[in-house]
Structure formats: structure tokens, C-alpha cells
Specification:
single chain; alpha/beta; 19 strands
Length: about 375
């Protein structure tokens, strides 16, 4: 019996856009259901970084860092108007979490994992050049190091990937809210809400990339699909008036708990973040006074004086595996839960969206069979 689509994707963030692009490139008909707007959630409230995750080396996530560094290089080359390489600087102070030798070892491993390309280089900034950083706290500074990563406008990147998917034939319904699905032997009957009216469609395969709502979507299927226990963690960023540096990202340890916070140039202003606050529900996402104070405390510690005016606050939610580990030590690698004619993606990084998409489409091909490809996603440019 014919169905409306080979694949229906629930969620229009970066993961949903990437999976839609990979699906239609692979020859599958595809529909994305997004309840608010493309990149409306965490995909526009990230740290705006395209990076391997230098700090993830401390928790031994070697494969994740290697994969994301590979994706970083692809995005620099194929999304050149959206992804910009930038110098990142790590000031080392007396009493920092990692001593000089450990920081150097981490930067060396990061370079090796990135394939020894132009953007794998790192160096120590000699003391006579520290004047370029005169706004930075100098008391207790014992070293300054520079390495490469990249920055992006996360919302524009997500929208670009979705446009690419649509140009190949993917369909997008937005706003359209997934309501429920009935699993049958060979397909799903999906109910969704669009323009205030409940409607139905059929699909061979259901892909759930609903971010912090992933388990709610899994549970709205009859019979209910398996779920993974997760913890939701809110990350908040502030946009501060004025530009501290035009071409530098600062990688800083917070003085209170030694968490890493980035200070990044952002459209002529400065982006600072992120925080980590436990969430009981995605409905609770909201910037708190405590988070604002936390970020402004870091600003005052490293740059002194009164903080610039806060122009914007943004908060998103990360989906992390439930465990007894601290938030910092929980894995950032996407978990892909496969069922019969279903896939659910838990977590994942902005940088690694293409790698996740390829894994999901491999599972689609395994369950639905191969199709005649329309395009090679590795050769698609993003603008």
C-alpha cells in the first residue's frame, strides 16, 4: 500500500535539517514537521562554535573530537560564507585547573586529531605580545596559548541546510506540531496539527529529532517506542553591547567552578556563555538571574569594571545521558536509538550534524532499502 512519504522527521533544528538533506539526497521522499520555526530552539541558542571540543579531551571523548574536527574542516571548505575559522586564545593563570604541560599535551592531541591541517596549528604567545590583550586580566597570568576553531551563525546555518534539503525535494510543514502516531506492520499513521486543524499522513519511517522533547514524541506513538533516560541541561548566553575583540575568541575558566566559558565576537557585540543548569522540563527553559550573574561574574573577573549592557539573553537545552557523572563529564556524543521503522536522536553537537545525518540515513537504507541517489551530500555547498 502506497504511503505519503518514505520518511517523516519530527523537529526542524540542525539535526532535522541535516537528516532531511541526507534523506532526499539518498533518494527518499521526506517531510519535516516543525512546531514553531526552523532553528527556533537550541539550534539558535548555541555557543555559535564549529569545533571539535578541546575540553572533551579531558573526558576522553577522542572519537567524538576526531569526528567533529573532520566535520569542522568540511564546513570551513563547503560553507565558507557561514563558517569562519578564528583564533581561540587560552590564558593560563596560577591555580588554573590544568597545568602548562597538560594544556600543551591537550593542544598537541587536538592538532593530531584534526589531521595536521592549517587549522591544527597552535602556539604559545610570547610575553612581549601580551599588550594586544591589554583588556584581559594580567595579574597571575603565566601563559597565553592560541589554537584554531571556527564560528558560525547557528540559525543561518540551520536555515541553509534546510533550504538545501528543500531544493532537492524535501517538504517542510511549519508550524506543524506532531500529535501522535499509530505504528502498523509496515508504516506509521501520523497525526499532526497544522493551521489549527488535526490532519493525518502515512510514512514508512519515523525519525524523531525533537531535541528536549524527544521522549515525549517517543511516548506519543502507539505502541510506545523505547526511550533513553536523559537529563536536560540548560545553557544560557548573553549578548553584551560592544566588541571586546573583533577576531579573537577567549577560552576562559570560570573563577567559581573552573567551567569553560567562551567570549566571542558577535555582530559587532560580544557573546558570552554558556551555563549549565538542570532542567526538569523543556517548558522551563528561561534565563535566570543566577545564570546572568554567573556570566557577568566571569566578565568582571577577567576584564574588570562594570559589564557592558546586556542586549540579549538566549537559552537552549542540551540532552545528556542520565548518569551519576557530573554534567561536565557526561558524553556529548549523539545517541541514536533504532527501532523497527523508527530512529530517535538524543543530543549531539552542532558541528557534528552531518555525521549524525549519515548514520540515520544508513539506518533508513537498511530498513527501507536503497534508492537511486539524487545528490552526494559531501559535494553540496551551503550558502
Amino acid at each position: 500500500m502506497a504511503v505519503d512519504y518514505d520518511v517523516v522527521i519530527v523537529g526542524g533544528g540542525i539535526q532535522g535539517a541535516g537528516i532531511a538533506q541526507a534523506c532526499v539526497a539518498g533518494g527518499y521522499t521526506c517531510l519535516v514537521l516543525e512546531k514553531t520555526a526552523v532553528a527556533a530552539g537550541t539550534s539558535r541558542a548555541s555557543s555559535k562554535l564549529i569545533h571539535g571540543g578541546l575540553r572533551y579531551l579531558a573526558s576522553a571523548e577522542i572519537s567524538l573530537v576526531r569526528e567533529c574536527l573532520k566535520e569542522r574542516q568540511w564546513l570551513i571548505e563547503n560553507a565558507a560564507t557561514l563558517v569562519k575559522p578564528m583564533r581561540f586564545y587560552i590564558p593560563l593563570y596560577k591555580g588554573n585547573q590544568y597545568p602548562r604541560w597538560q594544556l600543551m599535551a591537550g593542544l598537541g592531541l587536538y592538532a593530531v586529531l584534526s589531521g595536521l591541517t592549517r587549522y591544527s596549528r597552535f602556539k604559545r604567545i610570547p610575553k612581549e605580545k601580551w599588550d594586544e590583550f591589554k583588556t584581559l586580566k594580567m595579574s597571575g597570568l603565566v601563559g597565553l596559548f592560541q589554537y584554531w576553531d571556527a564560528v558560525t551563525d547557528d540559525q543561518l546555518l540551520t536555515e541553509s541546510v534546510m533550504r538545501s534539503a528543500q531544493s532537492l525535494g524535501a517538504e517542510l510543514l511549519c508550524p506543524a506540531e506532531f500529535v501522535s502516531a499509530q505504528k502498523n506492520a509496515y508504516d506509521y499513521h501520523v497525526t499532526y496539527r497544522h493551521n489549527g486543524e488535526e490532519k493525518q499522513l502515512t510514512t514508512n519511517m519515523l525519525v524523531n529529532v525533537a531535541g528536549p522533547w524527544v521522549n515525549e514524541v517517543q511516548s506519543a506513538v502507539t505502541p510506545a517506542l523505547y526511550t533513553i533516560p536523559v537529563e536536560l541541561v540548560q545553557g544560557t548566553h548573553l549578548v553584551l553591547e560592544g566588541q571586546l575583540f573583533s577576531d579573537k575568541v577567549m577560552y576562559l575558566e570560570h573563577p567559581d567552578d573552573q567551567r569553560v566559558v567562551f567570549v566571542t565576537p558577535w555582530y559587532g557585540n560580544t557573546l558570552i556563555g554558556t551555563t549549565e543548569r538542570p532542567l526538569s522540563s523543556p517548558a522551563d527553559i528561561a534565563v535566570t538571574d543566577e545564570e546572568t550573574d554567573y556570566l557577568l561574574t566571569l566578565w568582571a573577573y577577567y576584564f574588570g569594571g562594570d559589564a557592558p549592557k546586556v542586549l540579549e539573553c538566549m537559552a537552549g537545552s542540551r540532552v545528556l545521558p542520565a548518569s551519576s557523572k557530573s554534567v561536565f563529564k557526561k558524553s556529548r556524543e549523539a545517541q541514536i536509538l533504532v527501532g523497527k521503522l523508527s530512529v530517535a536522536v538524543y543530543g549531539g553537537k552542532l558541528t557534528g550534524f552531518r555525521a549524525v545525518s549519515k548514520k540515520v540515513v544508513s539506518e533508513v537504507a537498511l530498513q527501507l532499502g536503497a534508492r537511486e541517489p539524487k545528490a552526494d551530500v559531501d559535494k553540496l555547498k551551503l550558502t
